[in-house]
Request: fold
Amino acid sequence: MEKFHTNTVVIGAGVVGLAVAKEISSKDPEVIILEKEGNIGQITSSRNSGVIHAGIYYPSDTLKAKFCVEGNRLLYAYAKKFNVPFINTKKIIVASNQSQIDDILVIKQQAELNGVENLVILDEKQVNKLEPLIKCVGGLLVPSTGIIDQHSLMQSYLGEYETNGGMVSYNSTVKKISFVNNRFEILVVNKDIETKIICNNLINAAGIFSSEVANSIEGLDKKHVPQTFLAKGNYFSLNKKLPINHLIYPVPEKISLGIHLTLEVDHSIKFGPDAEWVEDPYDYSVNESLKSKFVNSINKYLPDVNENMLSPSYAGIRPITSKEDRVKRDFTISTVENHQIENLINLYGIESPGLTSSLAIAKYVVERL
Ligand SMILES: Cc1cc2nc3c(=O)[nH]c(=O)nc-3n(C[C@H](O)[C@H](O)[C@H](O)COP(=O)(O)OP(=O)(O)OC[C@H]3O[C@@H](n4cnc5c(N)ncnc54)[C@H](O)[C@@H]3O)c2cc1C
Reply:
């Protein structure tokens, strides 16, 4: 079996793995990304809403709050510098009844604690002035929310990484990892050919497969590996252009943000994602029968939409480490302090806002190495 040596291996070429690898390669070009698919971003990173989140919902002491607020600023600056298409659309969280106005006030308070600035409570008239088609009794304007073309973002991370001298090995599935003489020995299978890669630092950014990869590390006590649950989110697209310029969100639900309206950078409109627990990590089909559930939710803030105006679009799967309430779930970044193995970092539960947080997570990981 052929053996290769390198300083650092990153498992996974999603938006987070690429951001981490790019950051590491700016100091040390001896990095290899191992990616089981034939291209970058084929799993969760190309199956999301593409929203640059503000960081408003999460409790202040969470990694999500920290990375989202910091990542939001870093991402806008990065997109401007490297010409990645984005729009600072802003977002309005809309209340459909008076009791939801109280919910919005609580969200505003939490957002301000997290360091999100310039939030504005709007009455019905003010929302209608901004978005005449939207029905509500009031809302919260979030100026730092936007959208980004996630494919261009990943290409840009990859471009920088390769310019720094980093390499990606595609179609390379990590099967088993051993920890021998303070080094990691990684068994990789590429089209039935087995290779061993030996490295000093190992970052597991395998997304929905992170727990599976961590469980394949001999010597890692499995009590430090959380279970990853899968929550599928479906999207429907609107077959019609409507003059809507902000992202429109209902007041959030217990396990997800609720079926919201987001825009693409070409201004087309999509709705979703919903949330359902699933077992199969590869089933991305969108069931047409979900349409009526979508229309019921959408009609609370956009009454003119009916089933004939929606088409099944795509689905993505969130890696989630706890089935608890949405606000109680956090990213888990497991380092030597947790599992006692030096130079190993496992990233678990990097669901939303992972895209927004990618540059902030990368900075944090590099500081920990
Ligand atoms: C429905 C939905 C909507 C979302 N919306 C947003 C949003 O609007 N804004 C936002 O900020 N975030 C959003 N997110 C979250 C965001 O998409 C993720 O946090 C982010 O894409 C995670 O990136 P990643 O690199 O960790 O994982 P992934 O993109 O899944 O990448 C992991 C990579 O690891 C590879 N891999 C796995 N196992 C192995 C192995 N054994 N060997 C080699 N390679 C392996 C996979 O092939 C994959 O390419 C959303 C997520 C979902 C599901």
